[in-house]
């Protein structure tokens, strides 16, 4: 899941399925307030999974102590220290909430920074990273993958796509672009670096992905009713929405016996797991079934 922005699940929308790992891909809060972090922790506690990995996003600026200090110092008019302490906590308090949750219960909460790359450009200074004199931010989608905005602009990151193309993970999860909720089984074109551009050019979604053999599992456009829909298409969408309502999760499975078994090194399952979205459709977490290698016996 991603982009919960401090919201807890309502009772009728709370997932009830067990998972081995729960992953939150960023934007735990809307304004990085303590009350929002506590709400998010309540939500995470309600999920049945022994391991819970959490990545901070650009909205969660109090997780980045240096950025928090800078943001408070630059505020106009100046913020009263008592107000800051009450709403946002003292420096490090938001992180301490997750440390307490990790050590005080059976679940493990890991605040990932280096792996998750929660780094942001202006106007969100938290986790800022500068590369080639350009500000990049994560976790947003890889460019070309589930990254269309409502304005039909691609908002993904080309550098991140290039990194994913080189690594070719089994799963690449992200959020940030709320309207991009969906999943796609991406098939890489080549057995090498994922690019036919030459060694001096990074791969991109045109050169590295075999789109003819990269089925879209689901996306919001496949759920929303359109005036162009036939009666048959409209009924199909109603069935999908009812299935989501009952299961409380969008599901996809890529094991050996499935219709789309994932080919390790040849394919990557891309998932935009944004929860926050429009009012017409309740966006659900994704429940992914995938085969992983067993841990070697010591």
TrEMBL record:
Residues 17-64 form the Calcineurin-like phosphoesterase domain. GO terms for molecular function: hydrolase activity. It comes from the Eukaryota. Residues 128-139 have a biased composition (Basic residues). InterPro entries: Calcineurin-like_PHP, Metallo-depent_PP-like, UPF0046_metallophosphoest. Residues 123-146, 191-210 are annotated as: Disordered. This is Calcineurin-like phosphoesterase domain-containing protein.
């Amino acid at each position: 899941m991603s982009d919960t922005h401090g919201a807890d699940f309502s009772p009728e929308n709370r997932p009830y399925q067990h998972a081995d790992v729960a992953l939150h891909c960023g934007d735990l809060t809307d304004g990085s307030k303590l009350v929002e972090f506590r709400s998010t922790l309540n939500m995470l506690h309600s999920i049945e999974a022994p391991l819970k990995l959490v990545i901070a996003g650009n909205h969660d600026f109090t997780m980045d102590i240096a950025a928090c200090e800078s943001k408070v110092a630059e505020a106009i008019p100046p913020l009263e220290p008592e107000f800051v302490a009450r709403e946002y906590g003292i420096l490090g308090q938001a992180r301490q909430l997750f440390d307490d949750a990790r050590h005080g219960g059976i679940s493990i909460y890991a605040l990932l920074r280096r792996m998750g790359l929660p780094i942001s450009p202006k106007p969100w200074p938290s986790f800022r990273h500068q590369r080639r004199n350009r500000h990049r931010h994560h976790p947003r989608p890889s460019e070309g993958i589930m990254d269309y905005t409502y304005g039909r602009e691609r908002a993904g990151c080309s550098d991140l796509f290039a990194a994913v193309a080189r690594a070719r993970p089994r799963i690449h999860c992200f959020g940030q672009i709320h309207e991009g909720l969906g999943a796609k089984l991406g098939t890489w074109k080549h057995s090498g670096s994922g690019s036919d551009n030459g060694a001096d050019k990074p791969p991109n979604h045109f050169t590295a992905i075999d789109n003819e053999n990269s089925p879209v599992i689901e996306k919001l456009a496949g759920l929303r009713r359109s005036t162009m829909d036939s009666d048959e298409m409209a009924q199909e969408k109603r069935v999908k929405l009812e299935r989501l309502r009952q299961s409380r999760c969008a599901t996809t499975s890529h094991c050996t016996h499935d219709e789309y078994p994932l080919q390790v090194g040849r394919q990557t399952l891309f998932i935009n797991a944004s929860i926050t979205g429009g009012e017409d459709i309740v966006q659900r977490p994704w429940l992914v079934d995938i085969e992983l290698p067993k841990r070697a016996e010591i």
